Amino acid sequence: MNKSIILQDIGEGIDKIEVTDIIVSKGNNVKIDDY
Known about the structure:
Structural class: mainly alpha
Protein name: Lipoyl-binding domain-containing protein
């Protein structure tokens, strides 16, 4: 959840949040850093 907030801050909000939702479901937080 905190990761998606950070991504929102970047300004690429909606797309990134959807992607993070999927990634978080998989449990791969590292992938979020990749984005």
